[in-house]
Design brief:
This protein has 6 domains: 71 residues, Phenylalanyl-tRNA Synthetase, Chain B, domain 1 (2-Layer Sandwich); 116 residues, OB fold (Dihydrolipoamide Acetyltransferase, E2P); 192 residues, Phenylalanyl-tRNA Synthetase, Chain B, domain 3 (3-Layer(bba) Sandwich), CATH 3.50.40.10; 70 residues, Phenylalanyl-tRNA Synthetase, Chain B, domain 1 (2-Layer Sandwich); 201 residues, Bira Bifunctional Protein, Domain 2 (BirA Bifunctional Protein, domain 2); 88 residues, 2-Layer Sandwich (Alpha-Beta Plaits). Helices cover 26% and strands 27% of the residues. The strands form 11 sheets. It has a 7-stranded mixed sheet with strand order 29-32-33-37-36-35-34, sandwiched between helices. The chain starts with a strand and ends with a strand.
Length: 814
Amino acid sequence: MKISYKWLNELFDSGLNPEKTSEILTNTGLEVEGLDAFESIPGGLEGLVIGEVKEKWQHPNADRLSLTKVDVGGEELLQIVCGAPNVDAGQKVVVATVGAKLYPSEGEPFVIKKGKIRGEMSLGMICAEDEIGLGQSHDGIMVLDASAEVGTPAASYFNIENDHTIEIGLTPNRTDAISHYGVARDLRASMIHTEDIRMSNVAPISLPDVSAFSEGSENGSAIDVVALAACPRYAGVNISGVTVADSPEWLQNRLKAIGLAPINNIVDITNYVMHEIGQPLHAFDRDQIAGDKVVVRMATEGEKFVTLDGEERELSAEDLMICDTEKPMCIAGVFGGEKSGITEGTKNVFLESAVFDAVHVRKTSKRHLLHTDAAYRFERGVDPTTTIYALQRAALLIAELAGGTISSKVNDYYPVAMEQATIEVDLNRANKLIGKEIPRERVIEILKDLDFDVNDSGDSQINVTAPLYRKDVTREADVVEEILRIYGYNNIELPERLNSTLSYAPNPDPEKLVNKLSSAFVARGMQEIMNNSLTKLSYTEVLDLPELNASTAVRMKNPLSQDLAQMRQTLLYQGLEVISRNINFRYTDQKLFEFGRVYHVDGEGTRETPMLGIWITGKKLPESWNNSGDMVDFTDLRVAIDTLAACTGLNFSHKANEYDFFSGSLSIETKKNKLGQFGAVSSALLKKFDIDQPVYFAEIDFNGLLEASARVSVSFKEISKYPAVRRDLSMVLDQGVTFDSIEKIAFHTERKLLTEVDLFDVYEGKNIGAGKKSYAVSFTLQDPNSTLTDKKIDKTMQRIQEALSKELGAELRS
């Protein structure tokens, strides 16, 4: 939720700067996630001044350019080259001086520089309205009124609004703070009562006065609430003779500061009042209400309705509708209809202020995937005591800004008043929960400043009545939380003694393995990604791979959108989404990994499986003069798998297998289990993600990996104190003989002293003979108990040589 700092201070003049305001709000539980400067015109027209064109003559080297001398209030006139056809001497104009940064209505920002244009010096720019973001016209420069004062900053001349936008991460229970008024209430209470702040003479909150509201003589549009359970209160008033136009700048700026786009004065006022005090409103074109009667009823199953966005929607019998005598006009609390909305031709308005049941609104909003500001408030619960105030406030603004007249009385349907919750609070128990004894008087003052009624009998028990907008306060612990957050969590001292329980890490510990693998992957130039577990419905319906089919997909009952309609069955698709998006941003070389969960229908329940995904694509190494720019291949993915093996102490075996999303793949197996598969993603699948370069992918069952690593026994031995000795043999062998066979025979022959066998040269060609090759092999010998003698070394090498000669026909090369 976004709050305008200036708007907040209109309701409550705190005297605090935006940063301190944000700090206090965060400490009360309204966590400020962002604080951004707002300017009604990007850049705030900084570096732009009002100037007067003193002289103008033809550019000597260009027919369509003029040379001007412009007075901007400095000691000297500025020479500026201008291409506008309407520039002339005597005009008051907007001048961008050298160094000013301009933010045009379209295109990228640019900086004005000193330079020559067709051989003539230019020290600034005379601006058109689209070049500085004030409009769309580029027919010529802006010519200002002759009364404009030379040297005046353009920001002052055009009344540029400067503000700060405070973005609050509002938790679902805090319906009381869903408006500027609600935030002001918390801010004021904190300034008065928070222990380390405690300011005196804090100003009161000044809600706009509606005493000027006067009902008209008409009875107004009739109201018939059929669905009382879904609409406990409904009020309306008629306003006649309005003129629909753009809102004044101050109203537009307030809405822009909180991220809303102005529409017209009527709609802007309803949005303004909603964000001011938290009560959603809706304005209907009264002339489009058949029978001049508003009927609040449930929809008919399958009934069709066209909403303001032009989309036809099929309604459910659980949708609450605002109708006239002939047709539905609005989905109650969610979205308006196309036919009854405010247009440029609207002259008469029916203004609605209501309380709709939170559950009905929430279900309707999710069913139709309509998430509006009004629905956001109704589905959390609005304050029924502000229904009429909001109606009067908006009606007065419409009368003021749209020239309308309040022509009817207020029709208010509220047959059963909603009851407030009363909670018995034991102050002794409350202080024990808080961990500190807060004076009784302070507790009562805090609650009263938060609009709670307190019945103080003088003993340790008090009865607290929560305001109707605090639907989350239903028990003693909730009241204690209200006291504590205003008193200040930071003002509760830590006790001298703390009690805690021991926690035991599981063995094997999955977190340790995740951290170990992550560190190893990152050390090898890989990057970790994290995707949402919810994914697109099309991944089973469109791709429809046998391994990942719709029958095993876990579907969402009320998805927020089709892109978040089911739980993912594999990490592959979202990894390809990341790769595709990065390629579109010209980041083609990617080595990625993700620890995530996949979900499948398993019998009557679901199965949730932790997985590890690895993706590599692009070049092996960053582009440079000293590498060839080779693309990654299967061996690079194998290196990642080997890293996995090294970190877990496992020995993997691989077997060929086939999956539809691979063009060729191998399984990853231990002696007991299959852990996953890896290979090249098929070109057909890559095409669906608009990827035109090879991608290699591995997916490993993390639980299986964890269990297998737990079975690995690690053995240790002391490092030998005695030196190792190396001996080399150059042997001629048949071409079919592998180094692996040489290594096995050598270790089989000498088990005690031989520690390492390496191949360091291979030769085929002249002087070797047909069908033969030469291997140069090194043998490392070491005795852990003594220094090797030449005699023992020679004897050992003789036995190895004889074994190779006997088994493989090896001959020493001369």
